[in-house]
Inverse folding.
């Protein structure tokens, strides 16, 4: 049998690439995608120099410049000629849209805290479990987007309908996930806590909640994308600002030079939140190994 | 109690708790022998299997455990010794009979009993020191009480006591800031014992506490537990299926064995035997020790049932060696 070091067969489970090769492999598909894009863009621009479907580097740079340093079309603000780049950036389209979407996103995130606490009680207290579990299981099966018209009627087309859509879309799954985490806390730990004279509150919040918190944060990390998805759905249908609103507007104008930087910006923001939560988890819970 | 249990044993406990008549324990009157640390009266337990069948695990168990006794519950796998322990703990309720700890009936898990399980004995999110101080702190100060100035002085005292217990258990002061996953299995169990001892419960219940350890660590923990017991004389109920361990640790060995193979035949007390308080071991008179092991295992297989104070056994027991190493 070939040794782990010497085998270079990618279909050999026991073969491992060396560190340098692993790094190169991890970059491979990024390079391939960029290469394909550039190739497609170049060939389309050879046929039509004004092509906007696959913008070239110059068009992309202009789009990024417009997003980052120019205000949105609907804004009244007109930067003075002498305005600094920082001043222009503060009033730019991308900052305005990021703040609008971010506000909705973080309010929805805050509203998930009661959902997590409800899950703790469902998993731990039989009375709560009996009362809520089936309801949440049923609610989880409702397609959140199908509720969007109802949300618009109930909350109007302002902020709360979009926030409610995120919460309704993510909360049931999150509740079920956290309930399972709570149920997975070994019974021995709970019994032990009672023998140490802990009351129900101590067991729930000082034993079980502390133990599941790192997993809750990990679950939140996994739910970041669905949250953004529901936010985008709401913003694309009815909003006057926000990242998805801008993408929807730009689609009408074939503004791929703005859409592509926006898409990458959203991905970067999610990546940043994910990394921040991962670091926070590691700092707050050094005992957690997962 | 809580729901949603992940481990099979825990699920069984929950099922038993839910299926048991709630009045079984609550209806128990005052303990007839208030001096007893634990009193078990005609306790039976069975679990539903299928729609119309029940499997009897324990039937008509009656025991009195005096303060300061080191009782070892012995028996083959599935004979119900852990079930009996969980009922003393209050984690499960008997179908019939009642259980008293410290003179009052057991209806739920509380601080009358300390508990050292085989696994998950420590809270993984707390350091060793946090694990040791949790009990006394929770017991004396609830969440808002911790804001009182007196809490700081109390916490200092508790920490000093925790360091003393650590030292007593053969652990270093530097281990206090480690998390359980940074400790070996043996060290974790030492901390778990210290954690239970910090609470000074009326009875210490240990469920196969050393079963997952390697033989050397197990032997060292057996010696440690025996020495701790000799010094402070807590009431201990220790569940094991290792007869040699039972003979080394216990001052009394209770063997549970099934009375038949059918589902309606539960386990009963097959043997209830007093041992010398100074302990027994293989060293000194190995053959006799091994004979006694054979004799007890004969009972635990359910080959023969007897009650307390078998004259033949009482006559032979004191002749066995009383110091040295366990098997």
């Amino acid at each position: 049998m070939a040794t782990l070091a010497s085998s270079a067969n990618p279909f050999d489970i026991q073969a491992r690439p060396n560190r340098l090769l692993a790094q190169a492999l991890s970059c491979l598909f990024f390079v391939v995608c960029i290469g394909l894009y550039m190739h497609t863009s170049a060939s389309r621009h050879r046929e039509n120099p004004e092509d906007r479907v696959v913008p070239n580097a110059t068009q992309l740079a202009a789009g990024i410049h417009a997003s980052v340093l120019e205000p949105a079309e609907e804004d009244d603000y007109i930067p003075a000629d002498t305005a600094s780049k920082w001043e222009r950036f503060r009033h730019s389209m991308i900052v305005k849209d990021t703040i609008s979407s971010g506000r909705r996103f973080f309010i929805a995130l805050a509203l998930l805290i009661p959902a997590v606490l409800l899950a703790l009680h469902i998993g731990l207290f039989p009375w709560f479990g009996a009362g809520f579990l089936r309801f949440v299981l049923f609610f989880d099966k409702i397609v959140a987007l199908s509720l969007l018209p109802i949300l618009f009627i109930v909350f109007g087309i302002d902020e709360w309908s979009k926030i409610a859509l995120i919460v309704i879309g993510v909360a049931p799954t999150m509740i079920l996930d956290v309930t399972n985490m709570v149920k997975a806390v070994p019974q021995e730990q709970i019994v032990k806590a009672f023998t140490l004279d802990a009351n129900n509150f101590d067991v729930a919040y000082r034993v079980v909640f502390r133990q599941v918190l790192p997993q809750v944060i990990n679950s939140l990390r996994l739910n970041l994308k669905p949250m953004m998805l529901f936010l985008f759905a709401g913003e694309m249908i009815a909003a006057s600002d926000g990242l998805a609103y801008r993408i929807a507007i730009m689609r009408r104008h074939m503004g791929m030079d703005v859409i592509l930087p926006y898409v990458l910006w959203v991905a970067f923001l999610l990546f940043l939140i994910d990394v921040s939560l991962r670091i926070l988890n590691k700092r707050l819970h050094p005992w957690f190994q997962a | 109690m809580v729901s949603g249990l992940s481990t099979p044993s825990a699920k069984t406990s929950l099922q038993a708790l839910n299926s048991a008549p709630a009045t079984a324990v609550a209806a128990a009157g005052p303990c007839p022998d208030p001096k007893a640390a634990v009193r078990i009266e005609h306790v039976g337990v069975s679990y539903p299997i299928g729609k119309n069948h029940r499997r009897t695990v324990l039937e008509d168990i009656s025991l009195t455990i005096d303060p300061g006794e080191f009782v070892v519950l012995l028996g083959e796998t599935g004979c119900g010794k852990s079930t009996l322990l969980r009922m003393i703990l209050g984690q499960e309720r008997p179908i019939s009979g009642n259980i008293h700890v410290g003179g009052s009936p057991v209806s739920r898990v509380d601080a009358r009993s300390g508990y050292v399980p085989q696994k998950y004995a420590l809270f993984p999110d707390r350091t060793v020191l946090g694990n040791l101080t949790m009990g006394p702190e929770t017991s004396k100060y609830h969440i808002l009480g911790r804001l009182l100035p007196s809490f700081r002085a109390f916490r200092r005292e508790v920490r000093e006591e925790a360091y003393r217990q650590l030292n007593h258990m053969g652990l270093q002061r530097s281990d206090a800031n480690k998390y359980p996953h940074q400790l070996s299995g043996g060290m974790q169990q030492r901390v778990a014992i210290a954690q239970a001892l910090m609470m000074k419960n009326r009875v210490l219940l240990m469920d196969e506490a050393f079963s997952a350890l390697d033989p050397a660590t197990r032997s060292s923990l057996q010696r440690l537990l025996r020495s701790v017991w000799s010094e402070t004389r807590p009431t201990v109920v220790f569940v094991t299926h290792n007869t040699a361990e039972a003979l080394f640790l216990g001052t009394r060995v209770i063997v549970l064995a099934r009375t038949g193979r059918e589902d309606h035949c539960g386990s009963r007390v097959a043997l209830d035997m007093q041992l010398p308080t100074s302990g027994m071991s293989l060293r000194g008179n190995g053959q006799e020790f091994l004979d006694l092991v054979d004799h007890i295992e004969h009972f635990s297989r359910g080959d023969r049932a007897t009650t307390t104070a078998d004259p033949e056994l009482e006559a032979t027991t004191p002749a066995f060696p009383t110091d040295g190493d366990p098997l």
